Amino acid sequence: MNNLEIGKKIYELRKSEDMSQAKLASLLDVSNKAVSKWENCDANPSLEQLIKLSKIFNVSLDELIGTSEQNKRRKIYKIVITGGPCSGKSTALSWLQNEFSKKGYLVLFVPETATEMIIGGVTPWTIDNNIDFETSILKLQIQKEKIFEEATKNTDYDKILIVCDRGCLDCKAYMTPNEFKKTLKILDTTEIQLRDSYDAVFHLITAAKGAEEFYNFDNEARLEMPNEAIKIDDKILNAWIGHPHVRVIDNSTDFETKMRRLMNEISNFLGAHETYEIERKFLIEHPNIETLEKMPNCQKVDIIQTYLKSSNPNEEIRIRQRGNNGSYIYTKTTKRIINDLKRVETETRITKDDYLKLLIDIDTDKRQIRKTRYCLMYENQYFEIDIYPFWKDKAIMEIELHDENQQIKLPNFIKVKEEVTGKNEYKNSSIASTNL
Length: 436
Hints:
CATH class of the largest domain: Alpha Beta
Number of helices: 16
Shape: globular
Low-confidence stretches: none
Distance between the termini: 38 Å
Strand content: 25-35%
């Protein structure tokens, strides 16, 4: 269900009936704040509430949630292009427009909010404190993204790519942990809600790290010296760790090739949203959890993974709850096996209500897997370390590759027992079937 479609429809129907938010809230036995959140696209009604709404306004569920044939076909992806100062973002946006317009996408760009505000005279030194400044940036960023998402409703395009020049989590790099926590409270949101509202994050490494001779001050909002740019680059990258799809584009090649690598990564992600997943998997000794949790380049995520019934023996269907501290996102994933390294994966974001409904189709031959995942950025490589509660002496570490011949550098503080890529007994579906 699309928050934008539902929120606007509820507002239009309520106004057409000359009904106040308070009156609608009383009919539904919810708070005024809940109705306001729906209409502002900050939340969705539950399935039960949608049914009540359809009866109150005498409309079908399809009409209420906007499931027209065109909306069913339409694919909207929202990605972030981020990175340290002088990383090539401006050029990347130009390449993106050219590359993906040719592929039939409507490409929309959400401009960098911090630069807009600084050029407009709103700066850290003209605002009373850093929290107020970064909160202002975040408020504007959230509203801009909503407006851009709203703008996609009246287009004839079936494929839409919303590109954010920096995203909400970039603000975290410019705040202390306590400041960021206060900002989230002010905005009544969570880090997971902000971070995982994007489909993918692509981080371009600053030229100050590996291409020092090309570092410049062409952007009038750029104030950082090269050594400061490196520190900020690291902080920005660390802010996004924990997102399920982060890709890092470093300076190991010339600039044009750097741009082509970025285009390839985005193309691979989009595909038809049916992408080849190439990964290697390692059985490791149980890591020191305290060490992992102290690392700034590591983020903890709690996962509940449930397998659904499938009539195809080479197909795996699962649903997943992912997040922590009461804030979660939900996805449905279908995988088809190509070979030991390669699988075709189709993943879609679903609502909590959809997730709960799908639990009816649970595969009773497999247990539900609960695990803690530590997302680790090491040498610009994104590792995922899965800790299972029933294993005390071992864990699984995975890395997703862009091609089958990609070289990897394993973290030097992780003790690898053996590579288990392709070994059935260490696949999640097998672990769900046994007590290894």
